[in-house]
Amino acid sequence: MTTTIEVVRSGALTTIQDLGRPGLGHLGIPRSGAADRRSLRRANRLVGNSEGAPALETTLAGPALRFSAPATIAITGATVEARLDDRTVAMHAALAVDAGATLRVGTASVGLRTYVAVRGGIEAPLVLGSASSDLLNALGPAPLAPGMILAVGPPHRAPPAAEPQPPPAPAVEPTLRIVLGPREDWFTDAALHALTHDPYVVSPDSDRTGVRLRGPVLARAREDELRSEGMVPGALQVPPSGQPILLLADHPTTGGYPVIAVVASADLPIVGQLRPGQSLRFAIGRAAPP
Amino acid sequence: MNAPPSIRRAGDRAFLVELADNESVHRTAAGIRAAGHPRLAEIVPGHTTLLLVWEARAPAPDAVARMVAGARAPAAPPPEGRPLTLAVRYDGPDLEAVAATLGMSADEVVARHRAGAYRVAFIGFAPGFAYLVGGDPALVVARRSVPRTRVPAGALAIAGPYTAIYPRAAPGGWNLIGSCDAVLFDTARRPPALLEPGARVDLAAP
């Protein structure tokens, strides 16, 4: 019999995510997938899934989920208090869930997005090869809603694997490493200086499309219009307001605002965990942090 | 011999290649695709740029320059093909306003617009939203000053040098001059977008 999960409470915004839809950018289809791919992979490894199996991505306030049959789960990403019925459970470990038990994922205290993987993966119809919800383009399954029933797939790999150690606690004010360009020459020297010397704060109107930042205005050195060009996740796109938008998983594939710099790919998981109100800094360089 | 294209870093996994014109973009994209670079994840055309994205760390700039130069050689296969003909009706709510702005009759706008030999310059904004170029240069109009909160699917629209057909309902500031019944984006189809970058398009009466 298939194990099912009943959504008792949906949380603020909980979606199904895998590693997305690579290779379709030329057709205007964003990659989408988990905003913090490192945490998704880790959760899947902990329960013995392939790293890209569909799992749940929460946003700040987590869901309540009732399991119809025994299951194995793991919780990674943003730090939350999670309870199985009346018992507090650990993150970053494989957990046995009894039939009929309810998992309650609380509100993140550090970070924004928590991942809940289930051994066997969440079953969802694939759209263009992926079970991810692309919220910008309404591709893939709808976000979780109370009463929804999720199916768990059959386990298809090795038993759950122990992870060496939990990841380091995220910094209160992270420094994201950036590579300048491709359009750094569209900005004044003062803008380039401000970008790497002053903190920015995450605006509340951030979402899976982009993290909107408030801080020093990044003034342009030229006022002509940029013809639309391809965008990458982690790009710091600068609209006429001069307040940069850090592109995330569901970002449009092309854009007409110049990109002053791109966050190093190793730091993208940190971007997926930035909370509204949190401050951050940028530093040029690709070297490993000390 | 053309000047070598400028190649700009776009993070540690991508390069943005600037090319002379949109045709070079499609020729280069076709050449790179045909060469089959295994770790290359995305080849995304812009109007005069090509974004190359790798699965992991991108190669060194000189290796990318060689790859682009090889793809631009005359031996590269041209990304041609027969034009796709789309049936359109010129029944958009902005047709009269566009005609007035241009100092033409609506009939003249329709005749000039239908006569264009279009090509998909690139896709962006939304899945399957193709920016068509090749229209009559006399039909260049600015976007509407107040965008609509909802443009219906199938709307035939113009803005600046571009023509587009909205694959699905979306907010938009383009001038709506007509409509088209073709299904431009369908996730069950391969490829899901009816119009691919570089494709040639003719417009016809229904």
The two chains with the largest interface, and their residue counts, are: A-B, 36 and 39 residues
- Give the radius of gyration of chain B: 19 Å
**CATH topology heading of the largest domain in chain B:** Cyclophilin
Helix count of chain B, per DSSP? 4
Percentage of residues in DSSP E strands of chain B = 25-35%
| Spatial strand arrangement across the major sheet of chain A | 7-6-9-4-1-12-11
Mean pLDDT of chain A: 94
Could you please describe the fold and organization of this structure?
The complex is a heterodimer of chains A (290) and B (206). Chain A folds into two domains: 4-152, no CATH class; 175-284, Cyclophilin. Chain A is elongated. In chain A, 8% of the residues lie in helices and 30% in strands. Chain A starts with a strand and ends in a 6-residue tail after the last strand. By secondary structure, chain A is mainly beta. The model of chain A has no long low-confidence stretch (mean pLDDT 94). Chain A is built from three helices and 21 strands. A seven-stranded antiparallel sheet of chain A has the order 7-6-9-4-1-12-11, with no helix packed on it. In chain A, strands 13-20-17-18-15-14-21 form a seven-stranded mixed beta barrel. Chain B is of the alpha+beta class and 206 residues long. Chain B folds into two domains: 6-72, Gyrase A, domain 2 (2-Layer Sandwich), CATH 3.30.1360.40; 84-204, Cyclophilin-like (Cyclophilin, Beta Barrel), CATH 2.40.100.10. Helix content of chain B is 21%, strand content 31%. A seven-stranded mixed sheet of chain B has the order 7-6-13-5-12-9-10. In chain B, strands 1-2-4-3 form a four-stranded antiparallel sheet, covered by helices on one side. In chain B, strands 8-11 form a two-stranded antiparallel ribbon. Chain B starts with 5 loop residues before the first strand and ends with a strand. At the A-B interface, strand 16, strand 19 and strand 20 of A face strand 3 and strand 4 of B.
